[in-house]
């Protein structure tokens, strides 16, 4: 009999974290590594947020808090949803967790029974299928390839819905592609969902503020208020305010669901870090200048990376609407060989050979459910990005 649980056999460790760790190990061995595998802004948390956290510590805000968030933070989140998304929630419809990741996990744990299906468009954030499996549900993956702009069509969504469908997870702008659903496309999806009252919508809006050019962010409950009482609108401070390490995510949704998620959280982490909650209040209620500043920097880097990658032999890189990722295709390189004779049979081999030959760490597309691609996180300095693109161009040029 195995010591480890059967649950564990349904999940795999996060490939993005594995790649980041490998890059770290190689750097520790003295290799010249540029890691473009981690999904976090490379900026410091804004000063006023850090100050609020220090003040909270000094004021003794260091004890257990209410399970799913202090009242000030819940109110700040209600105000944020009203301000940015035109969504009216009351504090009882808000939950705060240890990162958006825990919020998503709580929701799945609180609702899934064996056999329940969760529709996940691919390419997807690596954690969705594993979290669904951990919670005992069945992931149903529907692909949206490069030709579809990495966006699922209404027909594709309609065809995937069965009587067992409990949730559909939407993530715009997306990790790993940066693709965003504009209002008319979102409307086509919400029209489908209006016809299927048993399906709930989990909208992961983590990259809401990182949108470029004239793209306008929308979230399903805003586009179709008729869906609001079966939608969980998930967001967080990690990406919006460079606060990944503080671990605060939140969601708005129907009271019954929010209460159930609180029950799960009460028996796992008790409450999100007290100090971080006070920092998140400062983030949501304080000056919002950081958002526009980081957006401008990321847009410049996106342009730099997209144009650089499109000059690489065999790489096709679409221009994303948001987030800080690009998801180019390497279909043009499959079957070629490195100077050492290794055949590029898939994107995993490409990523490993690229790392070995050049020291650039990217994440292979198979991890996100759509191959042959790779993901670059351009949350790195301009100098590192220019250097990395040069190395990738050089590497692709050596493949025969
Ligand atoms: C799409 C998406 N959702 C959720 C998360 C979770 O973010 P956090 O737990 O830091 O709030 C991430 C982080 O990488 C993400 O990319």
TrEMBL record:
Q: Which UniProt keywords apply?
A: Aminotransferase, Pyridoxal phosphate, Transferase
Keyword Transferase listed? The answer is yes
- List required co-factors: pyridoxal 5'-phosphate
**What Gene Ontology terms describe what this protein does at the molecular function level?**
L-aspartate:2-oxoglutarate aminotransferase activity; pyridoxal phosphate binding
Tell me the GO BP annotations in alphabetical order: amino acid metabolic process
UniProt domain Aminotransferase class I/classII large: residue ranges? 32-392
Specify whether 4Fe-4S is a keyword of the entry: no
Q: What's its catalytic activity?
A: L-aspartate + 2-oxoglutarate = oxaloacetate + L-glutamate
> EC?
2.6.1.-
Question: Which enzyme class?
Answer: transferase
**From which domain of life does this come?**
Bacteria
Instruction: State the PROSITE patterns in the record.
Output: AA_TRANSFER_CLASS_1 (PS00105)
Q: Which family does it belong to?
A: Belongs to the class-I pyridoxal-phosphate-dependent aminotransferase family.
How it assembles, according to the record, is:
Homodimer.
What is the protein's given name?
A: Aminotransferase
